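Entry details:
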Amino acid sequence: PAAVVSHAHGASAGAVEACVLRDRQKGPDEIRHFITEYAANRGATPQALDQEAGRALTQTLRDEGYMSVRKFVPTVSETLGVSRATVYHYLKSPDTASAASGPVP
């Protein structure tokens, strides 16, 4: 269930929407929706995203906490139309490595 968010004076609609989305319980349907919206904002379908956009999307999903969702990798791979190995590659690539992991050897 989505959290109830009161509109603070001066809060943008986007900020309020982000809070509601962040508080919503995440699952495969939310991952699919997130990916579809991400692609639509770039004028594409999920399957038409190039490798760079796929990496950036994976980083965004990681930052938003979606990796803890059960079946994360299969859901992302099916939605993007790529293999699970490709999703794992995106997760391991230096462009998406978290700052906490340090430099890539």
Observations:
- The radius of gyration is 15 Å.
- The mean pLDDT is 78.
- The first helix runs from residue 13 to 23.
